[in-house]
Amino acid sequence: MVVTTTMKMVRRMAVVAVVLKWARTSPRRMLGAAAVVAVWLHNHRLERERAYYTSVFHMIQTVVFVVRKTLSVGFRRMVLGVSNHPYWTWYEEIVVRTINFSARTGDVTAPRAALDVFEGFQRVTATWIANASVRNVDMGLGHGKGDALWITLDKKTKLGSGPVILYYHGGGYCVGSAGMYINAHCEWLRRMRDEHGMEAGVLSIEYPLAPETKYPENLKFAYRAYDHLVDDLGVLPSSIVLGGDSAGGGIAFSVAKHAHEHRLHSRKTLPALAGIVLISPWVNHSCESDSHGEHVETDYIAGADLIGDYTMAYCGDKDKALIDPSISAIHSHVDFLPPIMLTLGTREVFGDDIRIFRDKLHQAGKPVTLHEGEECPHIHPLLWPLFDKHSTRALSQISHFCAQRIQFRENHNSISCAWQDRVFLSRVQCDSNRQLDLPESNPQQA
């Protein structure tokens, strides 16, 4: 600890000495150098605090941080031969720390502008480089062609013609968009096609964000998207895998409950959902688990104050969020769930909560698969191609789960869903996934 503090002081003194030596030749340079040092030190102080910059000022501080962190990481790794995060590459470290800084120094809506730019970049690379198809979809939900994105590898793949990954993006309910993970979704679909011969598409929903739209209106919008897909477009639930990350994972969980109730009250006989994939889901709005303290330096959505701000923006009542099962899924009953796949990074703050949620599913006798990305932060599969080995492996296992679930549902429509799920658990084997033993049952009991 003492050595680390000393190294930081020496590095800062060296930077100041270089700047002062350069500035001594001119009063203008001296003023400019003083301004640069002031901005630099202020930006460094912000790294440890919760600030509430908006729009332009937030963007300026983020740009300053990127420059400062790039120089700092480069100096430490190339000159000193050390790193605060040796398990990551230099650019992975900069990306994770920049996202953390951006989240902590702005109000809950501040990162939207940067994420819009990121989505535009994703669209260009997906359509021009990966040759994928990204189309806006009007689902009659009130946003016109901004209701959702239909992402496929083949332009001929029409919505309703085959399997669908119905996806809800993350972003603390306050930021993000349907297209911010297009490249990862394309890789997901590519692996389903190349490794399992299944041509599917991702329908990513552009649900209204908080704080402009608060709970439960966001959920109602998500429910209507599912109803439109099943009732109006005629897609069977057995061809649908629900997906979501972070806050979107919480929405996807609630949609699964809605899908179960929709099936029970439907005038026509409907099969159950094929499955659910939740990527680093936000299942508990409490920040009391050990991982919240242990990984505050290695995850980008970290700190009780920051997480609390997103909770308040979403539902306006922290106490309600802690116990309401439609907000904190960890408190919900899970009897209605089809087989589910969970992912987490061993360096993320939600890790312990996700493991507790996994245990709850196990105890309830639900088929559950868990993928853990070693030394990875929050939603690492969606950061592909960052964390290349781990994110690629996670997407491969996710695509395997989806393809197997859809194929299994389609091939076993004549037996009860509960019995299907138990048979499926005994058959599907994914490398490095944790398979759980469930109580034995039989078709009559199911």
Automatic annotation (TrEMBL):
<keyword id="KW-0378">Hydrolase</keyword>
<dbReference type="InterPro" id="IPR013094">
    <property type="entry name" value="AB_hydrolase_3"/>
</dbReference>
<dbReference type="InterPro" id="IPR050300">
    <property type="entry name" value="GDXG_lipolytic_enzyme"/>
</dbReference>
<protein>
    <submittedName>
        <fullName>Esterase</fullName>
    </submittedName>
</protein>
<dbReference type="Pfam" id="PF07859">
    <property type="entry name" value="Abhydrolase_3"/>
</dbReference>
<dbReference type="InterPro" id="IPR029058">
    <property type="entry name" value="AB_hydrolase_fold"/>
</dbReference>
<feature type="domain" description="Alpha/beta hydrolase fold-3">
    <location>
        <begin position="165"/>
        <end position="378"/>
    </location>
</feature>
